[in-house]
Amino acid sequence: MAKRGMLIVLSGPSGVGKGTVRKALFDTGATDFSYSISMTTRQPREGEVNGVDYYFVSKEEFEENIRNGEMLEYAKYVDNYYGTPLKYVNETLDQGKDVFLEIEVNGAMQVRANCPDAVFVFLTPPDLMELKHRLIGRGTDAMDVINKRIKKAVGEIRMMRNYDYAVVNDEVSQAVARIQMIIRSERLRVTRVMPDYEQMIGDEN
Amino acid sequence: MAKRGMLIVLSGPSGVGKGTVRKALFDTGATDFSYSISMTTRQPREGEVNGVDYYFVSKEEFEENIRNGEMLEYAKYVDNYYGTPLKYVNETLDQGKDVFLEIEVNGAMQVRANCPDAVFVFLTPPDLMELKHRLIGRGTDAMDVINKRIKKAVGEIRMMRNYDYAVVNDEVSQAVARIQMIIRSERLRVTRVMPDYEQMIGDEN
């Protein structure tokens, strides 16, 4: 049996720039892993292509997929479903190829429950670490603005705890380079290369 | 309290080239971590400098260090002690700096027991993965040579299981690049960056 591929999950708080980073990552042309296209019930926007940007399906079709256990993860936002079909992910991993998902935090937690050996990367807003300096340094923000920002930061840091890596999205090209490094490094993990070695000595021992 | 540094342990089977890779790594000049110099009771060889290559001490001094719990790890080879003094490692980690050890497999397992959050890199001989191809491909080796090589490989693969990463020493410069990548990637681990974030929001929450 061939070694199974690795599942890589990029997620992060809403508005952090997950889609931009994912697009830049695949635009490098240096990716040796596959992008799993999401499925959605929302209408295609101008220029969006079915099977490239999303799989655009009807609400009935999406709900049938859910009922049949054919979604790796899914969520509903503003009356529309978004999710990852299980079939493509499984088939690609079975071929020994790595698969990359870019999904919302709720979806990422569903994947974590089903695929604990996936690699979970949390994209963080560049200002999360600078928050304190900024708030102390400026001293001009209204108290309710400060409190709101701190509350949001606490929520983001709590989310981060469920991930393996934290990548700051200070610059898209930097974030992309860090994600590529994490993927290459994860491929050298003993738990991931061990099946190959064990298979090699399996017949004799 | 400042974040503690990360302990990086490079080990591998005897003769794999750990010392050469470690030296090449530090020769790059691009290392932002400290090398922990080992202590030994063996005689300095021509050109070796005390405090650079090793700390050369007497057998009595080494054994006193052991008795006083001042060694992070140690072992005895051919009547000579080799080990890592705890003091330098702890002081450097406490300053928030990362520390690099290059030690024998027995020592690495002692470190694993004491510092489970260290990063353990296993350097593998380049022929370990090619073993089967070679043995099948050639068909010229005597049976006892084949069996001996397989037995050695099985032992090496068993050792590898106790490590986090496996780096093939096919080319020294390649092995160095992989180790640098692993260290940079490990610095992005949520478990390692989380203390900084928690400290930041600690006062407010």
TrEMBL record, chains A, B:
Binding site for ATP: 12-19
Cellular compartments annotated: Cytoplasm
Positions in coiled-coil regions: none
UniProt keyword terms in alphabetical order: ATP-binding, Cytoplasm, Kinase, Nucleotide-binding, Transferase
SUPFAM superfamilies attached to this UniProt entry: P-loop containing nucleoside triphosphate hydrolases
Pfam families on file: Guanylate_kin
Catalytic activity, as annotated: GMP + ATP = GDP + ADP
InterPro entries in the cross-refs: GK/Ca_channel_bsu, Guanylate_kin-like_dom, Guanylate_kinase, Guanylate_kinase_CS, P-loop_NTPase
Domain of life: Bacteria
First-listed, main subcellular location of the protein, grouped into a coarse class: cytoplasm
CDD domains: GMPK (cd00071)
EC number(s) from the headed UniProt entry: 2.7.4.8
Cellular component GO terms, alphabetical: cytosol
Domain Guanylate kinase-like as annotated: residue spans: 5-184
An example Gene Ontology molecular-function term: GMP kinase activity
Family as reported in the entry's similarity comment: Belongs to the guanylate kinase family.
PANTHER family reported for this sequence: GUANYLATE KINASE (PTHR23117:SF13), GUANYLATE KINASE-RELATED (PTHR23117)
Protein function: Essential for recycling GMP and indirectly, cGMP.
UniProt name for this protein: Guanylate kinase
Taxonomic placement: Bacteria, Bacillati, Bacillota, Bacilli, Lactobacillales
